[in-house]
Amino acid sequence: MKIQFFVFSVLAGIVLCFQVSAQNPIVISEKDVTMSKGDQPAFIVEIPQANAKDVKKSWTTLLQQNTKSKVTESNSEIIIHGAEINSISDNLIDIYSTVFQIDSTVKLVSLFEIDGSFFSFKGDKNDMNIEKTYQSIRHFLQDFATKEYKNAVKEELKGENRELKDLNSNLKKLVKQTESYQKDIKKNEGDSLNTEIQIKSLEIDRVRKQKEIDSKKESMASLGDDKERLIVAKKYLKNLERQRKKIEKEINGYREDIVEFQMNNIELKRKIEENNKRKIEILNIIDKQSETVKKVSDKYSSLE
To answer: Cβ distance 188 to 259 under 8 Å?
Structure first.
């Protein structure tokens, strides 16, 4: 059993459009198609934004409601015998259908066999029974398609809200990161200031130590040839010079620390500037995304 939609012939061109939104109408058209039981009249529903897999699952569930019959499938043709759909007919209905995806639209092709014959949309509309069945099938399909479209829009809204949430989360992280950079800058400035104080204190020690060295050198000049006293004096002088070099080394180390603090702050300020630019970009994107969420939300509300 295979519905050959590529060879259907158009015997009727009545098109019913249920305008759910300006861009995405649900369209129900009526055409004869070639299927497992030959050329038969069918209703073709176009559901925007839908996913064929989801539509097929929902359609199967709907057809099996209030009936012991189960849907079967053969060569892409979805079949149920003896479906109970009181809104269409008091009699059991055999329904043949197929679902396929075309870009972002799902097409549902359905054929309704009632009392052994396929319902024809070409029937006499002056016949109240035919007109009632015709309108019932149309509304049955419209209600299903609207629900599926609504579900698709709901998923779209969820996705857009997730994207908006991610953007706000990224913005929050960016702001937090910037605040962390600013704290690091203040810490570096404080550490640099404390290091300057340490250097000034060490400079005083270095000057004092240099004076001791100069004084020791002067006193050694008066020792003459007293070798023993000279040996002791030289040893003491060497220790003083070692202490001075240690102080100078500490001073140089602190100065290197100050340079590192300054370089770190330059880099941190550069990162803050980049973050501020990125923040503006994200805020603009958030504004646009918020507009998108509102549009999709309005579209969803219009389907209520």
So the answer is: no
